[in-house]
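User: Batch of two.

Assistant: Item 1 of 2:
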Amino acid sequence: MSWANVVKGTPYPGTSGESTINKDRIGSLPDYGQGRQRAKSAATRGALIATARALFTKSGYHQTNTTELVEMASVTRGALYHHFADKKDLFEAVFRQVFDEVQKRTNAAAAAQPGDLWDKTVAATVSNLQIRADDLEAQRILMVEGPAVLGWERWRALQEGVLEDFTGTIRKLMDQGRIAQGPARALAGQIIAALVDAALSIAHSDDHSTELETQREAFLALFEGLQTKA
């Protein structure tokens, strides 16, 4: 609230008429009460997402009940429905958080890889595969629960930004002559779909390390096959 608005109100006790306080000199002061309220609201939302993330990963979406969730998060049911329309809306917030973290780790791997765009693209793809294969949250939230809870269209829409970025990378590689010209978006989508399938194969394998190496070699062979031959 602005002090300038207060000045326009009822005169202070013991005075008559409008206050003589100079509004221009006072200006607007921050409302620290609102700041504390926003911080508290953000903390409540964060607690709900963190708790839901743990429960959805451990038990799955349908086996997680909101009574247990709000108790573990130490918030009220009213707080849950203040921040989220329903449990599905909360799941989407968890999905977005996990997905963003996976992408940040993937981008970091690409940035750390020396070489040109080709080298960085291969490194990012292999890194994304390993993250999805090793990270239980990524497996459960992104690849198992995600399409089942959100539906294929919404699940795909939430990943559209990454598909667009990867499509742009594929187009650049085509323009550089590293990959033969073709339908860049379709190729990018097929590579991403293959990543998800490979990661699930690794996650469900009895020999995780061997399957991871097998899938990694398969992707390296895939990229080798995509390269144009000089």
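Item 2 of 2:
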Amino acid sequence: MADQRILNSEKSERVLESLVERGSVVLITGEQTREKYNFVKNFIFKLVLNRSTNLELSKEILIRRIEDQSFPDFYEFSDRQIAIGSQDKAAYGTVRHLLKHMLPYSPRETKTRFILFPDAARIRDEAESALLKSLEEPPPSTVFILMVEDEQMLKETIVSRSVQIRLVTAPVDHLISSDQWERFWYLSGISDHSLFRLMSEKKWLQVLRTEFDTLEFDAQDFPVFDKLGGSYMNKYFKQENADVQNEILALSLLPLLFSVRDALTEGMLPTIGPLRLPWKDESKLMLMASCFEAVVIQLRQKIFGSRSASLPAVYYNFLARLFPLWNSA
């Protein structure tokens, strides 16, 4: 089991540094937050500077060179999707680019090279398979740092070859907003999701708030659901790939799932969902909760290990099952 540490500068950095000394694959589990990402990246920068053989290298120069992809001893993958890349001309940020253009060579400006995966769960199956040999037998003076919410999201062959630490953020109850939607994003953990910033930038959070706050909880609501998975999704996220669209729709249904659960546990547990449902029939609420849980799982499933589920097929099948429950509850 991974050692668990509260995120703070001194103690967590000391433990992380000891793990880097012990192994070439460091697995950091726990809730994925922007605070934790910044902490880990700054930690890596410190190690790079401490181990640098370039006396003119400063943090400012390091950051600038990383941004223009001219620093040879640090490689960071995307936190969205990590592909294997073309065999002929692999682009930067793909696994084949790393394997061809960095790993065969020794570090040039530091004693240790660092490879960061901000969300290792985003590694596609074929890319993960291509990486396995390098993770099983890492090149000399190379450290892989993989961040993931839960180790079960990675292949056992990767997990078994890693040294692990679970980093968690200390709760800050006094910072929780009194606004029911802001409170929900925080308590549900959605505000720490890698796509939350994109949803915020695209004004999608406001769309959800506006549409859900005006629900009448009868059959007249269904055009809203149809738009969320259809015209709205196409309008706001047309440029995003299927993985991102499916995940955003899954996250968008969680306010309703949590609100249904609140209705089922009313008077027994604190409420989390942003909506107060008028229904009291426990059996129908349980069916509705199962319906929401199932579609969230299905939207996140992979077909044949790597292909995204078909959003229209999954979502409109869900609406067909939800409609009679919603209309008669």
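The longest strand covers residues 142-147.
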